[in-house]
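Our preliminary data section would be incomplete without showing what the modeling component actually yields. Below, a chain of 408 amino acids is followed by its predicted structure, encoded as tokens that our downstream tools consume directly.
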Amino acid sequence: MRFLRAAGAALVGQSGLRRTLAVMAVVIILLLAGLSLSCGSSSSVSLKGPDHNAYVTLPKNGSVALLHIDGATGVITMGAQTPQVVGTTPTGLALLPSKKFLYAVNSRSNSISIFNVALDGVLTLSGTPIPVGGSGPDAAVIDPSGSYLLVTNNFTNDISVFSIDPGSGALSPVGSPVPANSDPSEILFTHSGKFVYVTNPSIGMVSGFSFCPPQLASEPQCSAANGVLSPVKNSPVSSGAGAFGLAVDGSDSFLYVANPSASNPPPYATTVGNISGFNIDPNTGALTTTILGSPFTAANGAGPTAITVDPSGRFVYAVTTGSSFSIWCFAIDPTNGQLVAATNSPFSLAAGGLFALIDPSGNYFYIGSQAGNGIVGYTYNASTGLPTAIAGSPFSTGVSPGKMVLSE
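Predicted structure:
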């Protein structure tokens, strides 16, 4: 066994009993810690996490691609693509928490494709795509319980709501699409599932809704007059020019919105774009006040569109195209939600503006890139937020990706 031989070698020339006992104690501690001692050609100690899958829409190809993620390195390899369907332009993507069904929103054909997910992650189309009920569908999200799918419709300015059959994955419309102000685009649920927020880029605003399916009817944000989605008080609220990406912290206390076209006063007048921060009322979901110091911006850079909060709730990342000042990183003050720029942020690293995702374990950070026709991957320092490129990044998807979801 290599480790024990190395420990023995450390004793060469040492005759003291105390030193011998110390080395033996180290060996025992390592054994108790569950570390395997390698013998011969057997495997050595590894910090490998579980391998898992992800999915990405490829709008130009009219397909959805399976991605394999190496849990030890974060490296992405392309798997099978669904058959290409001309004229569908799949963009938004949502995976059921059970990982049995995947939903792809087809922007050009105003429909939703339902895919069965096999144990190996391979997708099989289930029946014929169903009408979305609106025009220009864009983003999709599933509530935390896995019971409802919500889709934003850019051209008809509304949100379609569907109930999900847990056995078959079939979708059933719930009422008529809900008005969501002009050009609803990105959409998210709070972790509690009580509230939904949507960005309205054309008017630089954010629309908020209480979510009141039957299982949440007794919650304080719901009333007899509420449907599944009802506007929260003071909705919509002003965010900033081009308001697009949005993210919520782990406690559902703060909402952050990327405003890619917003102008800034001195000393950041040369930086285009900023991040608005809002306090979320825990009872009503209203965006009651902006966080002190909002909007927050970087010392350099332009046009952040995608935004995410890391699973620990410590950092906010906003990203844009190119490789100059393209990754903005801020530390979150947990007491008031204020953002403080991380050391050396913004980072001049390869990025993109299509999406920003961090896996739930907080190991890997993925960014959708228009320019590179693929996905840029990073690890990041849990103390400083500094990103470090994963070997082999960017990972090609052949054509520009649309949206990505992780199966984990």
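The first helix runs from residue 2 to 9. Confidence is low (pLDDT under 50) at residues 1-47. Preliminary results of this kind motivate Aim 1 of the renewal.
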